[in-house]
Structures are given as structure tokens and as C-alpha cells.
């Protein structure tokens, strides 16, 4: 019998489920696992704050399309993870969290940093209950195989989410049979089409052929399902315009003649008006139709239209509207069935002409007609034009600001745009982008405002320490912009706790040892793109904007 410490078994378990990068910070109660990592092929990344570790693990999972992982000690190490893990939970990201805990024999006695929930101590289980798919303090080893099995099953499923396993110090040091891992299944679940999908696909094909002007609303579910090509193929075959949710920008190229751009209250109203004025059928593909996308659930958007919904997530089916046809299944498989049905109708690519197709606007026309920013953002707009021009493919953008990119950034189908979704936490873009950069070796930009930057800027030193190339674009208006907007629109300019003084960002960048540019004109923007190493360097690009330039949308109606 080959006996090994539980700490070593944990490391071997991570390797078996494909974890090769681990973000975190050591502490006394998790050191046995760290010691087992010393000779392991798992790469460890020391962060500056545990929240950064959670965001990095989430960014790694999104960009790498595999399990992200983070590790912390007990007490404050675990509690500092909460916001990042909540974000991963909202986005259904497969993130494994390993935390330490005080030894079981002192539970309830007031152990340092104890979070067992005994004797009035912090109850870590209850703290994470609502933001994980599974959480467990492993107090004994006799059920360890069952715990690891359940964790692996969730992380490798089609509907994953964060899993947190906490190991008391003494349990980490116990010895168990290494063969225990043979009881843990690490196979990914095989996708099986739901019953009736062929019939549903035929019905969907019939509805599309019978519609005068269908419109596709593509959501992040298309990205999760890897169905971008399938969506584009259907749109091109039947000349169907496509609009996307914010999270799904780039499902089809936003420079395509079929793109309506992004749908949502924080974007231009082009897609909204096209649906209102022309659509008689709206096909939702992996789109949840949340508050932002639905224009605060505006009834006029879907009224008197045929509604079809396809989603692999059963929780999304008819969550906020009733569908004439609702299909629970894999988006790619359903669309393959639609193409099979269309083949029998002999519909060629570029098939039925649509009455309203001639009314589709080019990206530039959509932009020019966009009144959400009435003035003062030409330099921001020029930045996104430069980004599109110089990085037409193989680019990752992590964006906390979202308003500018939603309106000015035409994402290509070969790039990846990751909006700050989840719970929309400030301070997300930089650590998430760093985590993603460990997963994919492509040029990466993190875009955020000065308020969010000051929540996470020390993680830039993590990029420096590990020589992770990254471009940070900082919009500086010396205010919490959306708070100031709301106080202007709804509270008669009674501004309170929104304005602040910024540091000297040039000196800050110099102290980090990274390159810096302050851009105040289009010529300076062109010079920055020409002179900075935007592929292999670490750069901070500061773009000042007017704090009193407010977007013309209201957070509540």
C-alpha cells in the first residue's frame, strides 16, 4: 500500500482534472499543500491579494476554457476570495478553490483564523454556500474519495461553477492510500442531445422559413457552447441579422453586413429599433435576456412577435418571457439539425431575401447615429479604432468599463472580448487579464476606469514578477463615473463621495518598472500604438476624459 499525505493527494487530484496553474497566497494553515507543490509540475502564481487570485482563476477559466484554480489559507485568506468567487459563480466558471483550516482538534476553541463555524468562529461553509456549486470542509479522510468525485463532476460538467474544498491542517498531514484517486472519475461528461431535438430543429427551420424578418439574439451561451461558427453559418444562409448581448460581442464579426451590433440599454438603440420596426420572429440563442439586454424588460421589444429560445442551461428556459418554441439542448447540435432540415428544402447560402435587409447599417453608420455619448469621447472612440486596426485577430480584451467598448468597439470573430459580467465588480479587469494571459499567449488589454484601477493596481506587480505581457488602458476622469451620472440624472447634481484625487500615474508606472503613456490627442494615440510594445511589454496607457460627459441612458426607468 502506497501511503501519501493528503496534501500530496490534493496536488495529484488537481493534476488529474487538468489544473496546471494555481493562483494564490500561502499561509500557515495551507503550507502542507504548498510544500507538496514544491516538486509538482503545477505552476504557482503568488498574488498581492486573495481577491486577485479569484479573479485570475476566473480569467484563466474564461480564456483557457478549462478549470481555473486558486489557493489560500484559513480565515482572511478565504474571506478575501468572496467577491471573485461570487463573480465566477454568476458566470458559471469552473474554478476550484483550495483553502486551509485550523486543525480539527481545536475547532470551537478560538483557534487563530479559525473558520469552522464552531464556538462562534466564522462559518466558512455558510459564507460560501450561496456562491459555490459545492463546498466542503473535509474533516475526515474516510469520505475523501466521494468529496473529490463530486468536485470533479461539477468542475468538468457542462454547467460548472466554483467548488471550494477546505482542509484542516491536521487532515492535510494525514496519510492515505494513493490508490484512493483511482476511485475519482475525471472524465468530462459526454454531451447528449435532448429527446425531440430533431423534431424541434425541423420546427425551428419551418418558423425561420415562414418569417418575413427574423432576428437572432446571440448570448454568451453561444460562446460557452463553441457555437459561433454555427450561428454565423445560419445567419449567412438565411440572411438573418444578428445582435448580441454585451457578453457575446464577437459571436459574429461586428463588421459583418449581418451584424446589428450589441443589444442593450447601455448601447446605441440601433438593434432595439431594428427589432421593434422590422422583426416578426426573434430567435434567442444562449441569451438570458437580463436587465441590460432587455432594456429593463421592455414589453415592446417582444410584443406580437414569434419567440424562439434555444439554450443548454435549463435555468434560462423561459426565465423572463414565454416562448412559442423553447428548445433545451446544445446550441450547435440544434443548429446542425436546422441545417439538415433546410437541406431538404434546398435552401442555398444567401437564401431568402429579407424585406428589411437593405436597412441594415454599417458599423460606422451605427456609430455615427449613436447618441448615448453626445460629446467629449472622440479620443476614446479613436482608441478603439486603433485597437481594431492593429489587432484584427488573436486579441483578448478584459473590460470593466464596458460602456465605451459596447458602443465603439467592433469585435471581430477572431478576437475575444470579455466584459466585466458576473456581479460587475470593479477591480476585475487587471487580475482577470493576468489570469487569462497564463492560459493563452496572445496580446491582451485590460480596460478600466481610475476608480476600479485603484482597487486592483497592485496586481500589476504580479504581472511584473512573472513577466506577463499586459496592456492596461486607464480612463481617468477623477470620479466614480456611473455614480456621478446617476447623481446628475436623478439627484439634482448633489454629488457626494464620487470625486477623488488621483496619484501621478506616470510615477506609479515608473515605480512598477513598466512603460507609460498619457494620451491627450489622436496624434499621441497613434504614437503610443506605434512606439509601445503592445505584444510583449507591460504598459499603462492613461486617457483623460471629462467627468461631466455622461452617457444618455438611465439606470432605472
Strand content: 15-25%
CATH superfamily of the largest domain: Thiamin diphosphate (ThDP)-binding fold, Pyr/PP domains
CATH topology of the largest domain: Rossmann fold
**Into how many domains do the coordinates divide?**
3
Helical amount: 25-40%
CATH architecture of the largest domain: 3-Layer(aba) Sandwich
Q: Whole-number radius of gyration? A: 25 Å
Structure annotation, total helices? 22
Q: Tell me the strand order in the biggest sheet.
A: 3-2-4-5-7-6
Structural class by sheet pairing and helices:
alpha/beta
Low-confidence stretches: 191-196
Mean pLDDT: 90
Q: Brief overview, please?
A:
By secondary structure, this protein is of the alpha/beta class. 36% of the residues lie in helices and 17% in strands.
Task: Describe what you observe in this structure.
- By secondary structure, the protein is α/β, with parallel strands linked by helices.
- The chain folds into 3 domains: 3-183, Thiamin diphosphate (ThDP)-binding fold, Pyr/PP domains (Rossmann fold); 197-360, 3-Layer(aba) Sandwich (Rossmann fold); 369-544, Rossmann fold, CATH 3.40.50.
- Helices cover 36% and strands 17% of the residues.
- It contains 22 helices and 20 strands.
- α2 links the parallel β2 (21-24) and β3.
- α3 packs parallel to α5.
- Residues 191-196 have low confidence and may be disordered.
